[in-house]
Write a structure and sequence with these properties.
- The chain is 30% helix and 21% strand.
- The chain is of the alpha+beta class.
- The strands form four sheets. It has a six-stranded mixed sheet. It has a three-stranded antiparallel sheet with strand order 1-2-3, with no helix packed on it.
- α6 packs antiparallel against α8 and α12 runs antiparallel to α13.
């Protein structure tokens, strides 16, 4: 069989994009005869499960398809429940009314295990960082201030004290195997942070908060609680770190995950100065670099840099794969220096698993139900 793709512009990595759900194969008749909302919420596809029902905010019901081309899946019925409260999810796992839980908080791992729930810790390509929103506070347009935010952030303390050594601090712009192992994270250096702020003209005021031209270096920080790994606790540590160098967090607000999703829309139009955030993996360096591309929906910092855009354009139009590694490393190094975010780490994924299942997690965090097997765990 032959598939012909007609592109509006050159795209050397189009075949890599085909692995993403956005390129799912759909029956032409079903797609053309139904409105988009029906296609989205009552889908027909090529997977191992048939769609049964979906209710927003409640959950999804699926049933195994016995004529699936790879064979009928091992689990007959799958019920995906939307349970935003961590405590409720944990209680359901302990009670045996749930078999698989995503997003287990690191500090509750031992508690679940003490009740007989297996907690699977998996390497992940989910990049976790703090968005530095452009176009709001004037200080954040200065690369020296953004670098100071990174130098003043004690990521090592967060990794050790909050996350028990589960993570390693890194500049997580591009995922393996396209990352640059030689690219080192910003070290914790509050004196360097102070020197950069002094150089940028932000000097300590009478109460210790830095000012410039009558403007205080006072920022608003939004965080979710449990949506990302130890996100609220990380935000609290960072607020103290930045206070120590004269950056005031005027308002640290904990917001609901659904509110955060609304704020992320339109390149993070609803974000204030700082926002706990993360980004899932692509399968190419170019795809991961979309995190900071000016036209990408993933660029929720509204960061725009002409030099990077030139590098990105040249990269996207290069069809010689032998040149990609060097171009990828150059782009990573430049973005790391410009610090459009506060770099943290790749967050591991923690899953609660009942004794009825074996479970094999993926590094990209996707749940392919064919990897969930009935039977006692080994």
């Amino acid at each position: 069989l032959t598939v012909r793709l007609v592109m509006k512009e050159p795209d050397p990595i189009v075949t890599s994009h085909l692995v993403n759900p956005e390129f799912s194969i759909l029956p032409p008749k079903y797609y053309s005869e139904n409105p988009p909302e029906k296609v989205a919420f009552a889908p027909v596809g090529l997977g191992g499960y048939r769609f049964v029902s979906y209710e927003p905010g409640v959950g999804l019901v699926l049933k195994a398809f016995d004529k699936y081309w790879q064979g009928k899946p091992p689990v007959e019925d799958v019920i995906v429940k939307a349970v935003p409260e961590v405590a409720t999810r944990v209680s359901e796992m302990k009670a045996g009314s749930a078999d698989l839980m995503t997003g287990v908080p690191a500090d509750l791992k031992a508690d679940l295990e003490s009740d007989g729930v297996t907690v699977v810790t998996a390497a992940s390509y989910l990049r976790q960082f703090i968005n530095i929103k452009q176009g709001r506070h004037p200080a954040l347009a200065d690369v020296r201030v953004r670098q100071a935010l990174n130098y003043a952030a004690d990521c090592g303390e967060i990794a050790t004290e909050l996350l028990g050594g589960l993570v390693k601090c890194r500049i997580d712009l591009v995922n393996p195997p396209n990352d640059d192992p030689g690219l080192k994270p910003y070290p914790y250096d509050p004196e360097k942070a102070k020197a950069l702020l002094d150089e940028a003209g932000w000097v300590p005021g009478p109460d210790g908060v830095r000012t410039k031209d009558g403007v205080r270096l006072s920022l608003n920080f939004d965080t979710t609680a449990g949506f990302y790994l130890m996100d609220k606790e990380t935000a609290q540590v960072l607020a103290d770190d930045w206070k120590a160098v004269g950056i005031e967090i005027k308002d640290l607000k904990v917001i609901d995950a659904s509110v955060s999703a609304q704020m992320r829309a339109n390149q993070g139009a609803g974000f204030r100065d700082l926002m706990n955030s993360g980004s899932g993996p692509d399968y190419t360096c170019q795809g991961d670099l979309l995190l900071v591309h000016k036209e990408s929906g993933s660029n929720r910092m509204s960061w725009v840099d002409d030099r990077f855009e030139q590098m990105f354009k040249a990269f996207r139009q290069e069809f010689d794969p032998s040149k990609w590694p060097e171009m990828c490393r150059a782009a990573q190094a430049y973005v790391a220096e410009q610090a459009p975010v506060v770099w943290l780490f790749n967050a591991p994924s923690l899953y609660g698993v009942s004794k009825r299942l074996t479970f094999h997690p993926r590094a990209d965090g996707r749940l392919y139900l064919g990897s969930v097997l009935q039977g006692e765990q080994e």
